[in-house]
């Protein structure tokens, strides 16, 4: 039984006449199909009703700018911002000044990379990243390199299981390396980067910074809690049932000090690293989301495991399927799978009632092979047949089993349809 369900408003409540009298929404002629099953929680999660209750006062009543401390309304919001920063600092075992609030994980990654490169006192010139990183790391690093001949980039290859080649890492990470970017849990496959601790050691020996995008790691595993050290860390509210528009860059105090050039300037907010009127409501919601995630992590992970097992069990009853990522090397709740000779984009377009994604949500509409699977050496035909399902706290066993049946039936239909055209 799903003990988490009471904390959320389900899509069916929006589509049908709910006790709350919520009217169905339609934009651009698009309406949610009846019995929609959402399996894209690695992309975005619904807002926990407990968090909405915590946010509402800061949207309706206590809305002042925290930078204006001359009146009690501003002073109140300043204290709220301080409480949020202190709370996150405790969760991640860092100090108050090491928590920088941003608007998204992508912004946090950009602030770190661009801020390092644009620092006028920078002496090192190389950015190293894992081949399976999020596009906000890979594209940003390549953009910075293209804009300056002084910036070098190097990619760490992975094996068929998504693990970094340590021998190559030892050669690539050197005294000229500015930073090394390695996510703890891959957002497309759910694969845990088991070489992260070794990468940290290599980086430390060379004096390079280690940046970890833990957007999925904090949301779905104990990896951060297990004590993997880092110099900077990205976390996101949108992955842990908090509001969108809130995230954080954890920037540890080091000697010598990590110096970033601000990307948003003008007001001196966030210790002169991110000028902008703080979105207190979103930050408060994000903070409570982090608290709930920390408190309920074990139960949530067990539930993701239960849902994934039920989905896989049902899928195997109806169709032959390829799973990417060895179970012992991945976290529960994120799956990349493929059906032979079935194009993934056509499958998801045809299915309609099952919401899943082709690779990362950031590239869902691009008809290209997943760079993550390509880096793992997966053949092009199989990458184009691959798609991601990710489970969340609002899913039920019945729901994920039904989704598995629908996906299998649609795959069979597409194969039959393709055969008639030959």
Automatic annotation (TrEMBL):
Among the GO molecular function terms of this UniProt record, one is: iron-sulfur cluster binding
Q: Its domain of life?
A: Bacteria
Signal peptide, first to last residue? none
Q: Which residues form the Aminotransferase class V domain?
A: 37-401
Q: Which cofactor does it need?
A: pyridoxal 5'-phosphate
Q: Which InterPro entries match?
A: Aminotrans_V_dom, Cysteine_dSase, PyrdxlP-dep_Trfase, PyrdxlP-dep_Trfase_major, PyrdxlP-dep_Trfase_small
User: Keywords for this entry?
Assistant: Iron, Iron-sulfur, Metal-binding, Pyridoxal phosphate, Transferase
Is the keyword Iron-sulfur in the record? yes
Under catalytic activity, the entry for this protein gives: (sulfur carrier)-H + L-cysteine = (sulfur carrier)-SH + L-alanine
Q: Name one Pfam family in it.
A: Aminotran_5
Give the similarity note.
Answer: Belongs to the class-V pyridoxal-phosphate-dependent aminotransferase family. NifS/IscS subfamily.
Q: What is this protein called?
A: IscS subfamily cysteine desulfurase
